[in-house]
Write a structure and sequence with these properties.
By secondary structure, this protein is α/β, with parallel strands linked by helices. It is built from eight helices and 13 strands.
């Protein structure tokens, strides 16, 4: 099994859904229970043995790097990758990292919260040459099911992915372990759109067509993406409950 000690965090976007017209703050650093949002993901990665994090940045790149540097935990090596096409989809952000990683890596977004143990479970379940996605089948706990990234599975393989799938049996949580082949599939997806743009889901869909995407069921574990003020409030309530339960 390949030991994975490197991660990529996508944080190039504008985050306009959560900040509206207020450009005084950047989405990855919005306070959640008194701490910057992204700090929770960084703590989880460090606890599970990640040694290097590559941040893909774009919008307000100077401010983003300056604020992120202040949050790097001791023992974690950080690099910053510029995505000059940050206004395009997230597949382009991941492609910006293609020349900066040389082995399989953990992938997440700066606006995702998750149980730290999920990282270890994902790393332990990685199959060389396959992309792994942590999926949630607890539909009743999804804050905004309509907007969620849906997946269809067959056994432990993912056969399709997309927000508008009519038939699906799980939700993509935004946690991945990626082989280097993901970059080839993203280039193919980009070429299919006249060579200008692609989403991460576009590349994964092509990879799933070759039966190379695994589903890792998170079971009772918790996660939440934070795209809007309502999602932020919901995440704070959920995390407060979890912290209270852990303290009793």
């Amino acid at each position: 099994m390949t030991a994975i000690s490197e991660a990529v965090i996508l944080m190039a976007g504008e985050g306009s859904r959560i900040r509206g017209s207020d450009n005084t703050f950047l989405k990855p650093f919005v306070p959640l229970l008194g701490r910057p949002l992204i700090s929770y993901a960084l703590d989880a990665l460090v606890r599970e043995g990640i040694k290097t994090v590559n941040f893909v940045v774009g919008y307000e790149i100077g401010r983003m790097i300056e604020q992120a540097r202040q949050l790097i935990p001791a023992g974690l090596s950080a690099s910053f990758i510029a995505n000059r096409d940050w206004q395009k989809q997230n597949g382009i952000s991941l492609l910006a990292a293609a020349d900066c990683v040389s082995k399989p890596f953990f992938l997440t977004m700066s606006d995702h919260l998750f149980d730290g143990a999920l990282v270890g479970r994902m790393l332990d379940s990685f199959e060389p040459g396959f992309l792994s996605i942590a999926v949630d089948r607890k539909f009743g706990s999804i804050f905004d099911l309509e907007d969620a990234m849906k997946v269809q599975t067959r056994g432990n393989r993912i056969t399709d992915i997309g927000k508008t799938l009519r038939h699906y049996d799980a939700i993509d949580t935004g946690l991945f372990v990626c082989p280097l082949q993901i970059f080839d599939y993203l280039e193919r997806a980009k070429s299919a759109s006249c060579g200008s743009d692609c989403s991460l889901a576009d590349g994964i869909r092509m990879m799933a067509g070759d039966n190379r995407v695994s589903a890792i069921d998170i079971g009772d574990a918790w996660w939440q993406d934070v795209d809007t003020p309502e999602m932020l409030q919901y995440a704070e309530r959920q995390m407060s409950k979890r912290m209270q339960s852990a303290a009793t």
